[in-house]
């Protein structure tokens, strides 16, 4: 036990051993097996983080990094090994820089979306953020998890919008990726005009790809820079409703391919209702059942130069595309204003978190695919849900074009009563069956968690061997979140 040494690094106020605290970190809302950590340490800065990792290396103490506040959903913040120390980074809340000319922001791992959105708004910038993140969600945590973002036209690579990071690897060494690698300190780079925006590097390597999706198994990130975009001067949003999924995905394809839209996402009726539960006007309450099965939300915008002219021609082109597909874009659908819905999806969720409003619990099954495979995967998932005794109509679906619309993030949100042991086990069994069958049908699970991670890794022995070799370089003592992924 290294309690005394941790106190010597961060002070007694920042090390917790109270049973109720340890209990809270021993589990989350996933189906991961609960494991009680020995203590929770809360570093104040990057130097504290390095000292903690070096101490863990010397004593072979497992470390589980956490940056977001509760609730947690995926099991990656629950220790797998006994005697672990949770390193909670949520108190590192410094917004280091917001650089308007270079459209980049830099922050520590405890900074939430609400906090960074406020800082970037003040500089005329905006984040390419995920769908209505929870209030406690860490921006850095989201970037490292490669969560899908709402604006595919600015999503050039699967790692976007992450730019550079500073990481303390499992060896205790501090390393900076991308253009932040050097030469010189970050402050010296600023004076020389560098902005820490380029993600590749040092040299021709892309070290950020090793860190993303690693679930804390390589090291601890102490800050990250994120690429931002200029905030529009004017914008107009639309909704399209339909029963025909293939027609909606065809529209998605053309809107993104022709670069006519910014935010662009497709949801089923259940998820629209969950997202709007807090802001739905009284006059729209009865409209819930009148919603079409699929609702597409998109936004087009004008910027500093000729904004009205830009908006005008884009709306004309959008209407032409919609006519060819056979749908009608409207500013209000079933009593729901598109502008209201846009504000809901691009801002952090009001409390309670939107995925918990329906039943108190939610389990997500998500993967990447292409549009052509979506109908078959939807049908397969609906059948699996029915076999498990779960009504497919009660399941949320979120489809998000990514990487310039070349592929699609598909997410099933399974709402259930967390207090009902029978229902919880039914959802867990559905997850077990669905992962393998969806993968066999063409779904690519790029971010598997918990039991699913081991299932997916076992399907690709070559990748597992390569990751094990990389792990041996950056965390030779296997102290960083051991037991996750294939480690």
Please bin the fraction of helical residues: 25-40%
Tell me what the CATH architecture of the largest domain is. 2-Layer Sandwich
Query: What class would the helix/strand composition place it in?
Result: alpha+beta
End-to-end Cα distance: 23 Å
Show unreliable segments. none
CATH-assigned fold name of the largest domain:
Uridine Diphospho-n-acetylenolpyruvylglucosamine Reductase, domain 3
Descriptive report:
- The model has no long low-confidence stretch (mean pLDDT 94).
- A hairpin with a 4-residue loop joins strand 17 (396-402) and strand 18.
- The chain is an alpha+beta fold and 487 residues long.
- It folds into 4 domains: 3-88, Uridine Diphospho-n-acetylenolpyruvylglucosamine Reductase, domain 2 (2-Layer Sandwich), CATH 3.30.43; 95-230, Uridine Diphospho-n-acetylenolpyruvylglucosamine Reductase, domain 3 (2-Layer Sandwich), CATH 3.30.465.10; 234-346, Alpha-Beta Plaits (2-Layer Sandwich); 358-447, GMP Synthetase, Chain A, domain 3.
- The protein has 15 helices and 18 strands.
- It is globular and about 65 Å long.
- The strands form 4 sheets. Strands 5, 6, 7, 8, 9 and 10 form a 6-stranded antiparallel β-sheet that branches. Strands 11-13-12-17-18-16 form a 6-stranded antiparallel β-sheet, with helices on both faces.
- The chain starts with a helix and ends in a 13-residue tail after the last helix.
């Amino acid at each position: 036990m290294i309690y005394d040494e941790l106190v010597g690094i961060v002070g007694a106020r920042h090390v917790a051993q109270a049973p109720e605290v340890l209990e809270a970190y021993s589990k989350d809302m996933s189906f991961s097996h609960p494991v009680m950590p020995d203590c929770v340490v809360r570093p104040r800065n990057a130097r504290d983080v390095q000292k903690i990792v070096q101490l863990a290396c010397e004593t072979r103490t497992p470390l589980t990094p956490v940056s977001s506040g509760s609730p947690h959903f995926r099991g990656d913040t629950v220790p797998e090994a006994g005697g672990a120390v949770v390193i909670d980074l949520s108190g590192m809340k410094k917004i280091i820089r917001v650089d308007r000319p270079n459209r980049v922001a830099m922050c520590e791992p405890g900074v939430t979306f609400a906090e960074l959105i406020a800082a970037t708004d003040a500089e005329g910038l905006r984040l390419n953020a995920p769908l209505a993140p929870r209030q406690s969600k860490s921006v850095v945590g989201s970037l490292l998890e490669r969560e899908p973002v709402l604006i595919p036209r600015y999503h050039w690579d699967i790692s976007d919008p992450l730019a550079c990071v500073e990481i303390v690897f499992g060896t205790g060494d501090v390393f900076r990726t991308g253009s932040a690698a050097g030469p010189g300190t970050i402050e010296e780079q600023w004076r020389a005009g560098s902005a820490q925006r380029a993600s590749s590097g040092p040299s021709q390597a892309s070290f950020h790809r090793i860190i993303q999706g690693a679930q804390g198994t390589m090291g601890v990130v102490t800050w990250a820079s994120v690429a931002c975009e200029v905030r529009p001067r004017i914008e107009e949003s639309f909704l399209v409703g339909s029963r025909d999924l293939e027609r909606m995905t065809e529209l998605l394809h053309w809107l993104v391919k022709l670069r006519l839209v910014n935010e662009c996402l497709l949801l089923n009726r259940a998820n629209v209702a969950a997202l709007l539960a807090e802001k739905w006007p009284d006059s729209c309450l009865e409209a819930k059942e009148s919603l079409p099965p699929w609702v597409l939300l998109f936004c087009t915008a004008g910027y500093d130069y000729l904004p009205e002219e830009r908006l005008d021609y884009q709306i004309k082109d959008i209407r032409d595309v919609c006519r060819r597909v056979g749908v009608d874009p409207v500013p209000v659908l079933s009593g729901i204003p598109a502008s209201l819905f846009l504000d809901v999806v691009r801002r952090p969720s009001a409390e309670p978190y939107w995925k918990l409003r329906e039943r108190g619990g939610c389990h997500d099954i998500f993967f990447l695919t292409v549009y052509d495979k979506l109908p078959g995967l939807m049908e397969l998932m609906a059948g699996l849900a029915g076999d498990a005794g779960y009504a497919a109509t009660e399941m949320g679906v979120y489809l998000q074009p990514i990487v310039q619309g070349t592929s699609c993030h598909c997410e099933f949100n399974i709402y259930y009563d967390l207090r009902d042991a029978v229902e919880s086990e039914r959802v867990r069994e559905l997850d077990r069956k669905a992962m393998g069958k969806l993968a066999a049908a063409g779904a690519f699970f790029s971010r598997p968690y918990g039991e699913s991670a081991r299932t997916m890794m076992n399907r690709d022995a070559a990748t597992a061997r390569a990751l094990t070799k990389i792990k041996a370089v950056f965390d030779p003592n296997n102290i960083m979140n051991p037991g996750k992924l294939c480690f």
